What we know:
Layout: H1 4-31, H2 38-45, H3 49-55, H4 59-74, H5 84-104, H6 106-110, H7 112-118, H8 120-146, H9 154-178, H10 189-210, H11 216-229
Helix pairs in contact: 1-2, 4-8, 5-10, 5-11, 7-8, 8-9, 9-10
Amino acid sequence: MPPLAATTNVSRSARTRERILTVSLALFNALGEANVTTGHIADELNISPGNLYYHFRNKDEIIHHLFADFEQKIDVGPAGLEDAASAMEDLWLYLHLMFERIWEYRFLYRNLDDLLTRDSKLKSHFNIIIGHKREAVISMSFALVGAGAMRADEDEIKALAENVLVVASYWLNYEHLRAPKVNVKMGGAEDSIQAEKHLTRGVYQVMALIAPFLQAGAKEHLNYLKSNYLE
């Protein structure tokens, strides 16, 4: 059994690593990853740069750890869609959960092209995520067809999946263009409300891509969801 002092040091080290990741994520989200240095992170934590480098060799290593967390959290598949009545609710919930993860790690998406150009490992892993999400959208679309909630052929479904991923991947950039303050650091109740509105708008824009393929009952339910969550 290791000495108590050794166990305490390991625990303290783990807590410091977690604090570094938490603060780095907040700074990256608030200011943009390109505008944050390891010096900024150390200052925010009130630790020396040497202490930070003991846990992470550089900023890229911090980004890789945050990306690994994001990759794990966003790797959630949709629930099985069994009938038209529940299909739209389940799809709305799945998309909302996906946008929540994107918002939580929004610095990745706000600076997506630059990050992936600089780091081939991140690009490879991001392509895997995109592939999984593409297959999930295709699977959900076929399930909606089977449930009688949607009418589309295979080619239309594949094109729809690509369009959904384009909107999901670049929605943050569009929102930032329309309302630059959308990327500010979340804090009080008003900020949380604004973040929720951002998420709901993103979900609805994706659903709007699907809307032309929906059958009457499912389309009516989409309008119901819009009136309850968006307006």
